[in-house]
User: Fold this.
Amino acid sequence: MTRKIKLSDLEKILKNLQSSDAKSIDADTLLSEMESGKIGTGKSDEALLAAQLSKASKSLGCAMDDELEILAQSSLPMSRFDVKPFDLFSRPIQEVVLGASQKEGGSRQKTITIGGERTMPYFFDGKMPHPNCVTMDVFDMPVSLAKSVRENYDDVINDPAEWAKKVVRDFGADMVTIHLISTDPNIKDTSAKDAAKTVEDVLQAVDVPIVIGGSGNPKKDPEVLEKAAEAAEGERVLIASANLNMDYQRIGNAAKKYGHVILSWTQMDINAQKELNRKLMRQCGISPDSLVMDPTTAALGYGLDYAYSNMERIRMAGLSGDKELAQPLSSGTTNAWGAREAWMISSPMPDDSDWGDRKYRGPIWEIITGLSLALAGNDLFMMMHPKAVSTLKQMLNLLSNAQNSESVTKYDDESYDAWMTEVYDV
Assistant:
């Protein structure tokens, strides 16, 4: 007849073993765990007894049968490092496709999909559905750039089409952003028609998706972006951008009419972002799969702190069910160069610490800005320095456990690893 043994019986056995000459069992530890309540919360006597017998048998060098081992395992407390899926997030981020192939009415050799996340980036409970991507800046006229940036583009700075080719061919850009800054009435006041011709040249020069940016002039941009949208009809470009301080309806209507995606830009204000998104979708009829948000990126320091906090709030609100904020995010990461610490030779204050070589300092400034905002949920990065692009891609590929390394930049003069080694050796 099988004799049943209770947990209290095991306790007596263990107490007897404390004074016996039997093989060593850590009875003191087992008793301590039983008396302190560390073992026993919410478990059946059978499971708890199995757990204690398991420990005892292992101490004696005896094997346990499979059924007893399974029962013992069921009594183990959850480690403080064990995690469960975070069930607060109820809404996935909207997926948005940039670019259109020939089958889709465009001429791009590849398209880019952003969005689709179901949790915050690189979390244990959800893989990144699509890799982050980088669009590199190109301008329609020569511009003032930091020396460490300009030296990469001296040979193409007068030709936007060649500039676009170079960032794709040599620097691994996933996309190209053409900034039509010469259209500003305070600069060259280039006509919308001529700006559209520049857009056509860039589209012919590269086969990746493109972003079309204006000059930032609130009066001229709606006209320029409308004409550019018409010139790029069918290519599903990202029109950058619409904001509350300009005729966003004209820009939004043009994006919808010619089959493009609209960039909704606000200035670090989550409520303004909701308002603009709502107006673009309701007043202009922009569908959620054709809208990307840019809540503004500021340079390192307080600016980055605010940008990160705002972007993180937006992403978490979208994941938590706010349909007006459940859109992919874009960052003007190039704005990192707006901080004087990124490009000045040294501090203007004589007693300040050494800032280090600006050849590396500027790109690292851009890298840190991009990486920080990636952790806040950003999907698309607008960048300038080729080595900053390569390094950020390496980091994000590592974080997302990417198996495909084709997007990592390959340089003619030196590799990413060589450059990073040089930085660390300084």
